[in-house]
Amino acid sequence: MADFNTSNDLSTTFYFIGIPGYESLHHWISIPFCIFYLVGIVGNCTILHIVRTDPSLHEPMYYFLAMLSLTDMGMSLPTLVSLLRVLWSISREIKFNTCVIQMFFIHTFSSTESAVLLAMAFDRYVAICHPLRYFTILTPQRIAKIGMAAILRSALTMIPLMIRLAYFPFCRSHVLSHSYCLHQDMIRLACADIKFNVIYGLVFIIILWGFDSLGILVSYIFILRSVLSIASRKERLKALNTCASHISAVLILYVPMIGLSLVHRFAKHASPLVHIFMAHIYLLVPPVLNPIIYSVKTKQIRTGIIRLYFPMRIHFISG
Questions:
Q1: Which range (46-50, 112-116, 268-272) has the least confidence?
Q2: Dist. CA 217–CA 248, nearest whole Å
Q3: Which of 88, 89, 123, 156 is the most buried (most CB within 10 A)?
Q4: Average pLDDT over residues 105-125
Q5: N-terminal to C-terminal alpha carbon distance within the chain
Q6: pTM over 0.90
Q7: 99 with 189: CB under 8 angstroms?
Q8: How far is CA 180 from CA 62, 63, 293, in A?
Q9: Contact at 8 Å (CB) between 169 and 191?
């Protein structure tokens, strides 16, 4: 490992640690990570292709699902190269500018995914509580504006943190505790007053993620009230079943995010493996599981996948 004394070169270079204690197994550990990334990329690209090519899926629910697939890949793909470079013993180094860009994309798309899940909750609310106005409320133009607002909100709120980080001196160790760059991981290495970044980051999480989670909760309160007023038990279950995939997606994102935040704030002296494990769950589980969940629970997506990958089976069934 390089000498970590302060120098001009080290002030712009950081080092990943991979998975400490298991360096000799990094090549083997890379196999399940490659499988996870492959499943996530293929699954999300498949959903995007099906929604784009099937005219019957050009509806608000599936447009939002396509947005979710895009944000899933936006969260996970920036980490792919740096993680595999470490596990394949190619390089543990990353330049400061590259690290900041990677961090920006990870946090921006993470926050955007939360906003997309809020939009999907609103979609379910309109579909169940105001079905006759569904297509007039959620027009393609309005959906596009919602998507743009979600990405701009997340990107613009990250800019102050990135600007502040660019002026921090890093005179301590330049070793990061993950195989990619996270804001909370970098600021602990700074030799400067980091109160602004800490407070701003906390406010950022409370306001944006708090607003999104509150909006999702309120939407489901109205949905539940509307569903309970339906006389037919079969219709009640059918209405709730349309929300099952979305509720799963919310839990898949929020539970690891909360766990990672708690680990960084209250378990600073825990084993590095705990931090690494939680970070990987946070970034890899949503992109891998969301396509699977929506493929299993959504008949139209499931049919599209069978038509795409098993066309002979569709021909046999229809024949």
A1: 268-272
A2: 14
A3: 123
A4: 94
A5: 64
A6: no
A7: no
A8: 31, 30, 27
A9: yes
